[in-house]
Specification:
Length: 310
């Protein structure tokens, strides 16, 4: 258990039943989803609350995986016996940097959010992981003591729910997305310029992730860049969830220190990078169930040495 004076962090997003094909292996029906990856990663830094729904088809084994993380609260996870769990399939190409979506079955993501448990109302740090932007907006507005709300999004929502996405962006402090999504949203083929255009849509900062090339932070108060953790080919088993785990490590650190200024967010990017570097070493959440905070701290020290400039 982590003992800190950290501020409550809440997340909504998808809890998915994933099927993943990589050039070397295939995993069928495993626990995934933006919310699951985010919560597991953040839980190494602070306690994290989940508000999400699953259907009657959700395997008990998946619940048991989430229960292995001491710092995850499942009080806001609603099971809807008549509904279907979100399901997603993806296939990675040879270089493991690019993938295609094979299928997306929205299931409960097409329904309203569950009601917020009363004891979640004091949440101060809010993460809107990938899900329908209307539900992201619905969650973001429920916290009287909110200090920071950050969102993620992806191609599907840019394609099918752009008006709701723009409405969501107008009400959040930060957005995390990858370079292809930033280009799709802004029609600008340059990460920094695309991020600047997104700042005009509402957020105070934008983090553009560039896979093995790291990430860039574009903030109203400044600009920062961070390299990726240099994983080797044989270490990359399944990149799924790296983006969500990056956000989990980042938000977990911000909530742990209780600071939202530019420098704190810049440091948080390093914690996000290091936390995410473990996720890709196995399918699903497996690697995260094996490690402890000490492993993350050790790799952070190594990363600080690797990333030193000047
Ligand atoms: P990432 O690799 O970080 O982009 O996240 C992959 C996870 O996102 C997978 O576990 C999927 O279940 C989930 N996912 C895929 N598409 C969507 C979507 N349109 N909305 C919400 N979650 C999604």
């Amino acid at each position: 258990m982590i003992k800190t004076a950290s501020m409550p962090l809440i997340v909504t997003g998808s809890i998915g039943i994933d099927t993943i094909h990589t050039p070397r292996a295939k995993a069928e029906g495993i626990l995934g989803g933006s919310c699951a990856y985010f919560a597991a990663a953040a839980s190494f830094h602070v306690p994290v609350r989940i508000l999400a729904a699953v259907g009657g088809d959700w395997p008990d084994a998946h619940r048991q995986v989430l229960q292995r993380f001491d710092n995850i609260s499942l009080d806001g996870l609603e099971t809807r016996p008549q509904s279907k769990t979100f399901a997603w399939g993806g296939r990675y190409f040879d270089n493991m940097n690019q993938r295609e979506t094979l299928f997306t079955e929205l299931g409960v993501l097409d329904e309203d959010l569950p009601p917020l448990p009363e004891h979640y109302r004091d949440s101060e740090y809010v993460f809107l992981a990938n899900t329908h932007p209307a539900n992201q907006t619905a969650l973001a507005g429920q916290f009287p003591s909110r200090k920071l709300a950050v969102a993620d999004t992806m191609d599907l929502w840019i394609n099918i729910a752009q008006p709701e996405l723009l409405q969501m962006l107008a009400g959040v402090d930060g957005l995390v997305l990858n370079d292809a999504e930033a280009q799709q949203l802004t029609e600008i083929n340059n990460a920094v310029s695309a991020a600047r255009k997104i700042l005009d849509m509402g957020p105070t900062f934008v983090v553009v992730k560039k896979g093995e090339h790291g990430a860039v932070l574009v903030h109203r108060d400044g600009l920062a860049t961070i390299p990726a953790y240099p994983s080797e080919h044989h270490q990359v088993v399944d990149p799924t969830g790296a983006g969500d785990a990056f956000a989990g490590g980042m938000m977990g650190h911000i909530a742990a220190v209780g600071m939202t200024d530019f420098a704190s967010i810049q440091t948080a990017l390093a914690w996000g990078t290091v936390t995410a570097s473990f996720v890709i070493e196995s399918f699903g959440l497996n690697r995260l169930t094996e490690i402890s905070r000490r492993d993350i701290d050790e790799r952070m020290r190594e990363f600080q040495g690797l990333a030193r400039v000047g």
